[in-house]
Amino acid sequence: MKHVLAILVENKAGALTRISGLFSRRGFNIDNIAVGETVTPGIARMTITVEGSDPVIEQVMKQLHKLINVIKVSNLSKEPSVMRELMLIKVRADTGNRSDIQQIVETFRGKVVDVSPDSMIIEVTGTEDKLEAIKMMLEHFGIKEIVRTGKVALLRGTKTTRES
Amino acid sequence: MILKALEIEGVDQIFGFPGGAVLPLYNQLYDSPLKHLLVRHEQAAVHAADGYARVTGNPGVVFATSGPGATNLVTGIANAYMDSVPLVLITGQVASYFIGTDAFQEADITGITLPITKHNYLVKNAKDLPSILSEAFYIASTGRRGPVLIDIPKDVFDQEAPFEYNQQCHIAGYNPTYSGHAGQINRAVKAIRDAVRPVIFGGGGLIRAGADQALRELADTAKIPVILSLMGLGAFPGGNSLFLGMPGMHGSVTANYALTETDLIIAAGVRFDDRVTGKLENFAEKAKIIHIDIDPAEIGKNVNIDIPIVGDVRLVLEDLLRKLKPGNTAKWLKQIESWQAKYPTPTGSKGASSSLLPQFVIRELSRLSEPDTIVATDVGQHQMWTAQHFIIPAPNRFLTSGGLGTMGYGFPAAIGARLAAPDQRVLCITGDGSFQMNIQELATVVNNKMDITIALINNGSLGMVRQWQEFFYEKRYSHTILAECPDFVKVAEAYGVRALRATTEKEATRAIEEAFQTKGPVLIDFVVNPEENVYPMVAPNHPINQIITGGDF
């Protein structure tokens, strides 16, 4: 099963290496990873999607917690949360099929953010399922390039994942 | 500034080896009251600091230069990390403006040691030094202990900065749990009360936490037999009737049978290493397990735990003690006694080609040394024979490389112990393979007139590997036979170390007696039966009750 972990970490040199190194060293698989600042200066938040059974995830969380730079680790998959990922897709497009593509993009509430004579870039945000679905729909036009941010997530309601 | 911080932290002994990038530091050391032991290889500095830390309980401090100086520390750091030994290592680095340019003697030692340190630092600015040093000592010596490395570029040593040192430090992401959860402790008390065949299985955590007294009271009160891992030896008196020895691969038959038949394991400061558990699926199938450890990540890592208790093992055992009533385990103890009677520790093969057996040598060393003797071992057969035959009556007297299994650990560790405990006998039991991995330290012991007895169990081979080749690789002795090379007596004498040789039991006893009366370093070359194997043995990844006994029973 996939788990989404939110990790609050001191934004210090090497902190990212410590975390990514820990995953490879202990044989845990990272699906995707997103990093960014938080409201507190000096503290970054990593969202890591990791595949594994419950005992494996428990061990991942404990090992992460042992890192001195790591302040907090939460498993957001265990509670109601909003999870999103952003994807940019460059797809082959010409005057003949541009409107077909446009229609698909609208259905998925995406945006066309760039157009050239033979291609378009589409921006789409959503859950993993949704991104996979639009990707599949666009495949037969010819996908030239894809980039994804990795999943980010917040707990629903007033609860937060803050440093204290 | 660094030396001042070390003084505030109560450091009095440093182990190290100078070089270009630490010249400013060594220049300061020149008129410092701090003592520094010059070794002959940086690896020996870490092992010596490790031995020093295990005996005193305080962090061992190491200095080394950049590049090769720092990389030579790596094995020692990994060794200390695996065995949870507190160390603070200070390495020089090339000047900060050279970092990343592949400068002369540059190595990314913080990168290299990331997975083998509890934490590490690259200091960019001298003003950060006081807080980093204070954090380093705090992290190394609290929670689950471990090595912390501080890498300091040469130009940072020379920077001026205000020195405000605060030993109290707060680190947001580091808050070890010391007292056990009351609810879990109550569950543990109930489980102990209900158990019919309980055992205590303790490890190195007991020693680090100073829990030996609490353990003894617990075992005596509840009448529970005690099994200790290699790292735990000394946490419970070796000669006590409730002591069953070490479990696992070369553990006693009784300990392995007890772990197989028990209905409750009280695991304290252990990490269920594969050398202990054997095949995991078959380990302690009938038992509930209480696991007490300061490191939450150890709980449930290898073995499923019924009652986890995160905390300082001494505090938790004391909590348990307050609630426990005298136990009645007479029937179980009777069963154990019958195993003990049936399966004593094997004392060696009969009719061996050489008249001197290594097990006899270890027993004699144990018999003739005082109870407060500190024993440091290397790694291999002699290590296991020492664990089996040398009676370790109290904690901090048995120094061995448990987790990493580092050949070359013992001799430098004995050097560290010598400085840590000037009034106790220090004995290094080593093998001809291991000893050659740090033999250069003979110069260190001679220069410093150190009273250390080196008992070299010389079987002319890398005995433990040879044993595995005999058992599991059809006696194809690929690169494990060292023959009698070099002549260790001559080597020792060339360094100025007194050396004796023993080839018979009589000579062995006489040599030990003589060595123990000699001032300064002495080496005894015990030429022993080369075919001797360590028994009992459980083949790797086999259930621990499937024991190869070597036909001695």
Characterization of the model:
The complex is a heterodimer of chains A (164) and B (553). Helix content of chain A is 28%, strand content 42%. Chain A is α+β, with helices and mostly antiparallel strands and 164 residues long. In chain A, strands 5, 6, 7, 8 and 9 form a 5-stranded antiparallel beta sheet that branches. In chain A, strands 2-3-1-4 form a 4-stranded antiparallel beta sheet, with helices on one face. The longest helix of chain A has 13 residues, at 54-66. Chain B contains 23 helices and 18 strands. In chain B, helix 13 links the parallel strand 10 and strand 11 (288-293). In chain B, helix 9 packs across helix 14. The longest helix of chain B has 15 residues, at 42-56. At the A-B interface, helix 1, helix 2 and strand 4 of A face loops of B.
- Helix proportion of residues of chain B, in percent? 25-40%
Distance between the termini of chain B: 63 Å
Query: In DSSP terms, counting alpha (H) and pi (I) runs of 4 or more, how many helices of chain B?
Result: 23
Tell me the Rg of chain A in angstroms. Answer: 19 Å
Structural class of chain A: alpha+beta
Strand residue content of chain A: 35-45%
Shape of chain B: globular
Number of strands of chain A: 9
- Low-confidence segments of chain A, ≥5 residues, pLDDT <50? none
Which range does the strand content of chain B fall in?
15-25%
Q: Going across the major beta sheet of chain B, what is the strand order? A: 2-1-3-4-6-5
